[in-house]
Amino acid sequence: MIAFGLPSLGADMDKGTLLEWRVRPGDAVKKGDVIAIVDTTKAAIDVECWHDGTVEELLVEPGAEIPVGTVMAVLREPGETSEQVRAQIDALRAAPARVAAPSAIPPERPAAPAAVAAGRVPVSPAARKRAAELGLAVDSIAATGPGGAVTLADVEAAAARAAPVSRGEAMRQTIAAAMARSKREIPHYYLAEDIPLALATAYLAERNAGRSVTERLLLAPLLVQAVARAVQRYPEFNGFFRDGAFVPGPGVHCGVAIALRGGGLVAPALHNVPSRDIATLNRALLDLVQRARAGSLKASEVADPTITVTSLGEQGVRSVFPIIYPPQVAIVGFGRVIERPWIVDGAIRPAPVVTASLGADHRVSDGHRGALLLAAVRDLLQRPDELAKATP
Amino acid sequence: MTTTTYREALRAAHREALQRDPRVFIMGEDVGQYGGSYAVTKGFFDEFGPDRIRDTPLSELAFVGTGIGAALGGQRPIVEIMTVNFSLLALDQIVNTGATVRHMSGGQFSVPVVIRMATGAGRQLAAQHSHSLEVWYAHVPGLRVLAPATLEDARGMLWPALEDPDPVVIFEHAQLYNLEGELADPPPAVDIEHAVVRRAGRDLTIVTYGGSLPRVAEAAGTLAGQGVEAEVIDLRVLRPLDWGTITASVRRTRRVLVVDEGWRTCSLAAEIIAGVVERAFYDLDAPPARVCSEEVPMPYPKHLEDAALPMPPKIVAAALTLLGRSA
Known about the structure:
The complex is a heterodimer. Chain A is α+β, with helices and mostly antiparallel strands. Chain A has helices spanning 82-94, 125-134, 152-161, 167-185, 198-208, 219-233, 278-294, 299-303, 367-380, 384-388, and strands at 2-5, 15-21, 28-29, 34-39, 44-48, 53-58, 65-67, 71-76, 188-196, 239-242, 245-248, 254-256, 258-259, 265-266, 269-270, 297-298, 307-311, 330-334, 338-344, 347-361. Chain A is built from ten helices and 20 strands. In chain A, 35% of the residues are buried. Chain B has 14 helices and 14 strands. In chain B, helix 11 (243-253) crosses helix 12. Chain B starts with a strand and ends in a 5-residue tail after the last helix.
């Protein structure tokens, strides 16, 4: 039996709302198929299945808000029979906390506690402490504990109900939480390097000559590729800081910061960047931007980035001081490409130059290695034809 | 693994001690020719002889005092008292002498005596043979107090107790002697320092010891059937208490229930709850609770004796109440 649980689509996600099932009982699914659309505070996300199997039963109704990990559907593994799976589904059902009711049905308010002194609601010490952390007033929280006391679970439930409703507001809070955590927990250090792009822009001009607008290669995938291949050499910038230690990324999946039209931003992943050729990467990036703005990202894209690349060049600023998206450990920013006086072979010439900046986690890496990383990005961008090729 | 009983495990532990250390001898009422009130020393009189298996007159004060004197003189006596109720006659020797000599001699003398006794109800032996007075001893600095509740502990606690340079009191619950089970061969070494989590759970911590452990285990099984996962802690050592194990568990489950066959007022349960509140107040999600014996002299009739004791249905009901669920 495969119990399909709601995946976490980011470090800051602890619940989601099921919008739509894309499969029905009896459907065969393959690894990578989209089986549901789940709304998070950031966007509606296509959730993929990571196993081959046959859908036996869908356990969650559209509209239900469920915590991460909740079993949403049960699939039969190849060779399994329906009967073998039924008993296990019944067992899942018997664990009520794992299968949430649709949020459209308001939670039942328990009767007022009987044995409470006037004006004072009993609150457990743990609940009082948690409510103070969340800034919730304990006397407004529905109580389910012994003697009508407010328990820790009641506080958590109240906090979940108090969550904001509008997408924009929710995204603002999500960004606020992630960035506040980043600035609170991560000792950033910053480095910057001016990188001449004469060779890169010449390469692009040559490749794009005679191509239609939609076929043209952009500078952005070249920049992303330079970062991706540089972190292959300096892997301590690619991964996560979890439970007090650095965990290397399982591959190089570059998150690309994308500003949304309604405000806010997302940074979904381009997967396995180093091995891809520039044309493929270009298409993938355009597709990613389009889908991010349409609100149809895949779960893996939201959850997987191992390092982020942000480019504020379009806004016309020269350099970025980027903030790391936890639990990642580094972010590389690019400013606007500007024609600047540049010395080549002893003579001053106009050259397109971009300022690359690195924000990195000092718990994981030191400035010396950061400098080597940025230098590698610079050097890689001087060999655009190599950068453009796929590597095995 | 061999199938054995709590009684046989104790017997094996005593035989081993007698064989390993010539300073070890056993004394008490009927431990010799009769073989012990609970048959722990059966056969030892013939095997080890009257010098090492010594029947004593019916005077707890005299023979416990003699044991303490022998320990002061360099022997390693094991003194058996028939029940904890009778041990009260020897309290003067245990509390005023055994527990104090190290302190009052400025560390010059130690009293490496082991005092064993049966405790607890459940065998219709009425109000003079059935009480659980462990807390009287757990109150006293200078003593180490043990409550083996498993075959491993029955087999393993005696030797480290004999190695302790200070007096050790061991409580054997009368209902455990016939407990049957598997024991590894050779038996595992055990410590006399720590409490042990006998069952892991997330919803509440049930702290217990001695004869209540099987009842708590039964209750935990019933609770599991209702979706409640109780963590069960066997104290094993009643003095000094292992606060690390207790508080770590309560911090995780946030709820604590103490099951103690002693009377409620001024009980070990009271001490454990006070200690938990001192150490983990802000982690608690419900008021600590306890199930103890009813505050009556232990009744003789079976149904009243059962009603007075912390039996599994009471434990289940208290646990559910702690979780805000009706029993």
